[in-house]
Design brief:
The structure holds two protein chains of two kinds. Chain A is built from no helices and nine strands. By secondary structure, chain A is an all-beta fold. In chain A, a hairpin with a 5-residue loop joins strand 7 and strand 8 (99-101). The model of chain A has no long low-confidence stretch (mean pLDDT 96). Chain B is mainly beta. In chain B, a hairpin with a 6-residue loop joins strand 5 (46-51) and strand 6. The radius of gyration of chain B is 13 Å and the shape is globular. The chains are: A mainly beta, B mainly beta.
Amino acid sequence: QSALTQPRSVSGSPGQSVTISCTGTSSDVGAYNYVSWYQQHPGKAPKLIIFDVTRRPSGVPDRFSGSKSGNTASLTISGLQAEDEADYYCCSYAGTYSFIFGGGTKLTVL
Amino acid sequence: QVQLVQSGAEVKEPGASVKVSCKASGYTFTTHEIIWVRQATGQGLEWMGWLNTNSGYTNFAQKFQGRVTMTRDTSISTAYMELTSLRSEDTAVYYCARNAEGLRYWGQGTLVTVSS
């Protein structure tokens, strides 16, 4: 099973908004409302920032938001800050006790 | 507080096996699945498998079928991932994570280096 498709890189200036897409299929992203997003800084473990497509864990700023349309999920980061520069991964439940990750997107804050 | 603490780094020769542990604390171990994920240097996250810590049921990514085993010891709240027939491409950081409303809690990662 191939990884979910994410852009390899995105960039934005402080204060701007960026959106990262995550495209799967009707067997994963399109089939379940179990898409999550992870932020990973170099040398660190991933950090959950969005789960169940749109929900934010406590402590995650509301600058981070998630959505889904069909087979594509999206993460939007508004009011970009320098500390948002990191790698971002989407992940979807794919049925029968399995997950699939996206290939990852490097966010650069200019 | 919820914590997942993994075993230390390993260096293995090609063809050997490695067993990584993941000790949970701060919650009832059998109420949430443990997911194993790996990340090769400079690469993305890769889902390896799913362990139901209550029943012991497992499901693995197809590419690891036949080479991976995931078990648990509920008496010490610890999950294990064993990978056999190691090759250089298995060099990676291996993570365990708790599955509950996303993968909210992660272990610190275990670096497994496969080298002769």
